[in-house]
Amino acid sequence: MMLEKFVDPLPVMETIQPISFHKGSMFYEVTMKEGHQQLHRDLPPTRIWGYNGQFPGPTFRVKRNQTVRVLWKNELPMKHFLPIDTTVHGAGKNQPEVRTVVHLHGGATPDTSDGYPDAWFTKGFKETGPFFPGKVYTYPNQQQATTLWYHDHAIGITRLNIYAGLAGAYIIHDEEEEALSLPAYSYDLPLVIMDRSFHNDGSLYYPSEPQPPIPGVRPSTLSNFFGDTILVNGKVWPFLEVEPRRYRFRLINASNSRTYQLSLSNGTPFIQIGSDQGLLSAPVHVRNILLAPAERADVIMDFSSLDGEYITIRNHAPAPFPNGSLPDPETTGVLMQFRVLKQLQSEDTSKIPNSLNVVPRLKKRNASRTRNLLLNMTHDQYGREVHLLNNQLWDDPITEMPHLWSTEIWNFINVTEGSHPIHLHLVRFQILDRQTINKEIYQKEGRIVPNGPRIKPEPNEQGWKDTVCANPWEMTRIIVSFGPYTGLYVWHCHILEHEDYEMMRPYVVIK
Ligand code: C2O
Ligand code: CU
Ligand code: CU
Question: What DSSP element (H or E) covers 441?
């Protein structure tokens, strides 16, 4: 079945309201529930799992330095509706099927509230007696205004839980940002981008086997998942009617495996003002925005001289990225459409200031340590691809133990044929550069020999990041200062099919 594009209006997720203000913190309650949602005009309602039963979940809009506490409750069914691979670590037959734990992606969060993959809980879990039938997590929000997102992180089934719908936007505002007069309120919207496939009855399709199938294990993980439709805010190919004025959109790639290369059909550039961890030092005009899984781009679109026009967001990224096949311009090559048809409600007083933020560069000479971290791939006993970080499994002893406030350089050396979006919990970092490495020498002798110039990131990658695209046969160097907390965290590839199958490692920030 071929779904018609641009027949549903873009949903705007509701902003969640706190239920109380207690001992200096805003208190929220969120329940993970099964629901049924119509994801396209011509699809029957789809079973989803959502925060408060919604897909995507409600949007948090919080103020910097305002502590937020959330009671996360699990009222999901006991059986999963997507194919669990019980050979995957942490998802064995002896485990409850439906396990959940919430992670605030990009949050500088104490480790007890960070959503460690093993810290999952099941339906009806009680932490502190009958009043708290779930887990209360604390988010200090002591970080710059930016777009974060929250999503499930349960070991071995993260790809399935997020695919089922467990993801939402989390926006931090602050006074510095407010003073800039950027487009705000109803002109400031998150756009949560995901790809999905459907059965004819409207239910979500997630393969239970890789292609070609591998005998001996079923259901099985796969190396990548790519849906054949694109959803924004939970609708397939929606449209948004806009006024002829400026808007701010917070693009969030919440897809399992798909990287996007976004452009606008009328050839105008995006005005990118922010990346994962906050505002860029200055706005950048970009015709193409590359957005790997979990990355965010904060953009301004100016419709003021486009009255009556229809503009689509297109995608040009091959899948798998960067060496797979190009998207079909009729399907996965399209995200959504803007229609500049609304009356201007009032004069547009928003601004795009020439300077947005102070982004001090972390200094290489302050780095106390450099780690070379291999991104590689082998095969398991069934012949399936297993992606690894530094040749280690999730279960292997912890090897990354930076000191609190120490600065380190991490070199991601990608010796696979696909890009891996590498994410570190807790911290924000900067990209130093990318450099090609000699493939032939590596394949013959296993030696890493950089052979190209060190390429600085483009201006829109020069701000604070928490996820970085490490491309094949390149060394991607980042610089990180570890803080503000000590504790147990993780770093991993954000292709969920990789993360769930060994491309994730614990790390500890020590005193
Ligand atoms: Cu989006 Cu471990 O995170
Ligand atoms: Cu994270
Ligand atoms: Cu990966």
Answer: helix 439-445
Model confidence over 164-181: pLDDT tens digits?
Answer: 999 999 999 999 999 999
For the record, the structure tokens of 309 come out as 């026009």
Q: Which domains does the chain have, with CATH numbers?
A: 20-178 (2.60.40.420), 185-340 (2.60.40.420), 364-509 (2.60.40.420)
Length of the chain: 511
- Angle of CA points 95, 100, 105, to nearest 5°: 135
The ligand 1 atom at the shortest distance from the C-alpha of residue 294 is 1
The whole-number pLDDT of residue 175 equals 98
The percent of residues above 90 in pLDDT, for the chain, comes to 95
Strands 102-105 and 60-63: unpaired
Ligand 1 nearest-atom number relative to CA 491: 2
CA distances from 360 to 144, 184, 279, 280, 467 (A): 13, 26, 12, 11, 19
Q: Which residues line ligand 1 (CB under 6 A)?
A: 103, 105, 151, 153, 294, 423, 425, 490, 492, 494
| Ligand at shortest distance from the CA of 491 | 1
Count CA within 13 A, CB hemisphere, residue 498: 28
pTM, full prediction: 0.98
pLDDT in tens, 210-226: 888 888 889 999 999 99
Average pLDDT over residues 94-103: 96
Rounded to whole angstroms, how far apart are CA atoms 134 and 143? 26
For residue 417, what are its two tokens? 């044929």
Tokens of 15: 């902003």
Distance separating the N- and C-terminal Cα atoms of the chain: 57
Index of the ligand 1 atom closest to the CA of residue 504: 2
